[in-house]
Amino acid sequence: MRTRIIVLTFLVLFSVLGAAAAATYELSLARNDRNAITEQAQNYSFDQDGTAGVNIETGNVNTVPIQGQNSGAVELDVNIPDSIEIWHRENAYMMGQLDRRQRLAPLPLGNHVSSPEDSEQGAFRILVVGDSYVWGFGQFDLDRVWHRRLATFLSENGEPGGYEVMAIGHGGRSIVSYANYLTEDIIRTLNPDLIMVGFLTNDWMPDEAESICSALETRAPGTDCAASDWYIREDYVKCMSGESNLLGSFLQNVAKKVFPRVANEFTERICESKSTPDDPLSKNERTAMQDNPESSEFWALYKETVKKIRVQAGSIPVAVLPLSTNYLVHKDEVYQVWRDAGFDVIANPATKKLLKSVQAEDEKSLWVNPADSHPNLLLNNAYARDALAYVKEKFPTKQNSGADQKMALVSNFSPSSMYYKTENEGNQVIFVHDADTEAAKRQTVSNDIRGITRLPQQVPCAMYGRPHARVVLNPQVLTKDTKMKVTLEDSENTTLILSQVTYDTHGKQLFSKPLQLQKGSSVVLSFNAETTGFVIGAPTTGCNLNSKISLAPFRMTIEKF
Q1: What is the CATH number of the domain that holds 358?
Q2: pTM, whole model, 2 decimals?
Q3: Residue 278 region, left (φ>0) first, then alpha (ψ -120 to 50), else beta?
Q4: Residue 380 three-state SS
Q5: N or C: the chain end with fewer CB closer than 10 Å?
């Protein structure tokens, strides 16, 4: 009897201590999540005094009416979500947007709205090749990717239209894919004057896409992979949902109801080994390859592939830009292979200086968003500055008639399912958003990149703390101070919220104080080289993880004065 009492007492005590420990850990995880998001949110801060000189006009607009509804209370406070799960969902949505509108090489990556300067006769043509760092993984604004920043810097440092920057790339690709992109036919068609390879430390290793996609029978047209399938592994999805083992089932079906963060944390740890589909290399093997690359069985393939690119490029110069991070740094012998083949390896003092200034524990300050380690604007600017110095030294600008060019007013936008058309010689752009169109339905994302099923997301949300649309203006147009009128011609909600978006010198994203824009009203905004565009959002805040994220239909016009 005494033994039973001791055992029961021990079990009760163990359960109480276990529950207390789990609760403490739960609070710790929640605090860590909030701290991480708070630090990231500093990059999305709001300038409450940024509305000086804004004029709001009202008047009747003759349009086909959208069925309206009473929008109720309007919330002007902006609350950046503190849940990392919401950011995972948001990141997946943005990746889905990129995947659907840009697809894969060998076609050059568009910036979603073509500009006349992109096909200027006589321009010096630079073809950039790379992986997710070129594709724009996690980017809410494609003009913040380093090769687009390079195009802007070249325009600022010379005549607009003197240079044209094109790009080919996709996430998860390697040097083998780059060689496949740079066929003689593609090079002949694009006719570049310079090929620039954006090179990461894992680019000389086997291409994940080769092994991930090898078992797929259905492939998307013009790609080596089935659309939207290559990054999801079935056994990982089952593991994360608790279907593949008893411990996972307990964590997801029992513990998660009481301690959701603890349950998710341990489930992630259990399933981590399954997260990379069919990866032929273990983490230790990759570390060994990075520490001693010449001993790798893939070293010979790497050298052969570099030589292949040299042959296919012919007489066109090729330069390699190191895209270093604090945790991705090459040994010099990896770059020496390029030098031995006759390529330039671009010096990267701007990148090294930035990375040196960021402490190891602060490396997330260079992340594009709280759930994605791809480079933010600050690091992309450093890459672009290094590339700019090389191009200006080796290939001085050709004077061009850029001053007389007609340039597109808008560069890109999200959601990319919005319909747009230009009028008045490109000085006016009309946008229509309707989540019920077939295009919008095709671009709805209902799961994150880990394969976890969510309710549909049709528009961005987390970056602005509410469902919204984002319009990015052409930086080539904003080299001079410019005024534009934004008119909300019609809307299902009687009022929407608008903020201008700018970046400071540290890459910090700034939103102006939210304005109420009523149906039939206009706002006159001033833009300059530091301005990227504006967002227009729902009247109420919130990015609920367990709700559908959408934005009611609206029609707006942007007109340049």
Answers
A1: 3.40.50.1110
A2: 0.76
A3: left
A4: helix
A5: N
Query: In terms of domains, do 553 and 445 share one?
Result: yes
What is the rounded distance in angstroms from the CA atom of residue 525 to the CA atom of residue 488? 14
Question: How many Å apart are CA 559 and CA 502, to the nearest integer?
Answer: 19
Identify the pLDDT of residue 201.
73
56: left (phi over 0), alpha (psi -120 to 50) or beta: beta
The DSSP-derived string for 130-195 is ESHHHHTTT-SSGGGSHHHHHHHHHHHTS-TTSEEEEEEE-TT--HHHHHHHS-HHHHHHH--SEE
Give the Cα separation of 505 and 381 in Å (integer).
10
CA angle 107, 108, 111 (to 5 degrees): 130
- Select the more confidently predicted residue: 194 or 506: 194
Same domain? For 465 and 415 the reply is yes
Closest among 124, 141, 40, 23 to 82, alpha carbons compared: 40
The sign of the torsion formed by the CA atoms of 226, 227, 228, 230 equals positive
Query: Could you write out the three-class secondary structure of 177-201?
Result: HHHHHCCHHHHHHHCCCEEEEEECC
Q: Which domain holds residue 421?
A: 46-85+405-560
Pairing label, strands 318-322, 194-199: parallel
Please provide the DSSP assignment of 81-92 as one string: ---HHHHHHHHH
Cα separation, 415 vs 94, in Å, equals 9
| 474 plus 534 within the same structural domain | yes
What's the confidence (pLDDT) of residue 339?
94
Per-residue burial over 331-365, b = 16 or more CB atoms within 10 Å of its CB, e = otherwise: eeebbebbeebebbbbebebbeebbeebeeeeeeb
Rounding to the nearest 10 degrees, give the CA dihedral for residues 222, 105, 439, 411.
-160
